[in-house]
Design brief:
With about 240 residues, this protein is an alpha/beta fold. It has two domains: about 150 residues, Rossmann fold (3-Layer(aba) Sandwich), CATH 3.40.50.1220; about 80 residues, 2-Layer Sandwich (SIR2/SIRT2 'Small Domain'), CATH 3.30.1600. The chain has ten helices and nine strands. The strands form two sheets. Strands 3-2-1-7-8-9 form a six-stranded parallel β-sheet, sandwiched between helices. A three-stranded antiparallel β-sheet has the order 5-4-6, covered by helices on one side. Helix 1 crosses helix 10 and helix 6 packs across helix 10. The protein binds ligand BV8 and zinc ion (ZN). The site of ligand BV8 has 34 residues, from helix 2.
Amino acid sequence: MIDCVASWIRAAQRLVLLTGAGISAESGVPVFRGPGGLWRQFRPEDLATPGAFDERPELVWEWYVWRRERIAAAQPNQGHHVIAHWQQTRAAALLTQNVDGLHERAGGGPSIELHGNLWRVRCAQGCGFRAHDNHASAPRTALRCRCGGWLRPDVVWFGEPLDPQALDGATRAAEGADVVLVVGTSAVVYPVAALPHLARRHARLVEINIDETALSAAADATLRGPSGEVLAALERAL
Ligand code: BV8
Ligand code: ZN
């Protein structure tokens, strides 16, 4: 199956990759769902919401600081590097749900970060302030904006709309793709989980995952295994 998918990639004019937390797992960054996805007794759905931040901004910041410290200690793995290589050599479009910035650190160039990036902060009161904020261990208390409001991580929480430009760009990429590789996502979070279904009308849809997911039945090919190893094997077969 590796050789077959490699032949589809070789022939692709518009290769699109959609990634989720699984691609960062081999870098030691915990995924959201399944074993290891919990922080203390909280699920991501408990903390990644505007309501949780309004009620307990310090607790939500503690979760993000814990994640930043894990991510700062992590390195992009071979899966990130293969995708970066394809962005540069095959004009591959990268759509990611990940907010860890590891794709960017792998050096492939611009991607669409559909759920934002936890290395950026923005004003929660909406004064428009937004900035990169690279220090991993932000003060244990939540950060204050110059307008007096809270600063929050510049990510999309549950119940919040995605950035319209990002979603529009990702939708056009999916609709125009001839090969879509969906890597390391449980494909349960919408509207991103709908993107592969937009593509499958006319594109080859390939799932790379260690497990069965909500998308598996719709895929033209599923490559079961750790994404870093599978992507490296595909690169060797090209
Ligand atoms: C929206 C950013 C509408 C923050 C995230 C009720 C109320 C409100 C909304 C809803 C509702 N019910 C449903 C919804 C919609 C909701 C949704 O889809 N919920 C789901 C849970 C049912 N969606 C939303 O709320 C979205 N917004 O709908 O707004 C709207 C419109 C207009 C006006 C107002 C509102 C916003 C969704 C974005 C939420 N933010 N994260 C942060 O990260 O801190 S979601 C979170 O899940 C992450 O971004 C993550 O990327 C994303 C998806 O998870 P995965 O990446 O797939 O990770 P997961 O752990 O699930 O899976 C890992 C996979 O990797 C597994 O399959 C595993 O097998 C595999 N794997 C593991 N290791 C490896 C591997 N594969 C390969 N190799 C390995 N080594
Ligand atoms: Zn402000």
